[in-house]
Design a protein that fits this description.
Mean pLDDT: 85
Strand order of the largest sheet: 3-2-1-4
Distance between the termini: 22 Å
Strand content: 15-25%
Helix content: 40-55%
Structural class: alpha/beta
Radius of gyration: 14 Å
Largest sheet: 4 strands, parallel
Number of strands: 4
Shape: globular
Low-confidence stretches: none
Number of helices: 5
Length: about 110
């Protein structure tokens, strides 16, 4: 199993080589979300003052089907709160340094 740093480097390299032009991004954003590809997102620092409202906004996005929340403390509470928001997006919480690799597993976007 690869470490978190290797996964981050792989994601960063992918993002550099596959960047979309502004027109492509607008076209992608304006397409119907029912036929659009859904993304798995990992949010690091999810229990903080910026992470909590950002997690809520991400949970409400029709483009995200799985949201992994990670922080060193308090992630279970944020995860429980977001689980009550009625959207199709699935939320999983990860807490502590040992869970970082699991939180990043399969993520297509890391914030």
């Amino acid at each position: 199993m690869r470490g978190p740093q290797a996964r981050i480097e792989q994601l960063a390299a992918h993002m550099r080589t596959g960047q979309m032009s502004d027109d492509e991004m607008l076209q992608h954003a304006n397409t119907s979300t029912s036929s659009s590809r859904k993304f798995r997102v990992a949010l690091l620092g999810a229990a903080g003052g910026i992470g909590q409202p950002l997690a809520l906004l991400l949970k409400m996005s029709p483009l995200i089907d799985t949201l992994h929340l990670y922080d060193i403390v308090n992630t279970p509470g944020v995860t429980a709160d977001l689980s009550h928001v009625d959207t199709p997006c699935k939320v999983r919480g990860f807490v502590g340094a040992g869970a970082l690799e699991l939180a990043l597993e399969g993520a297509e976007l890391v914030i």
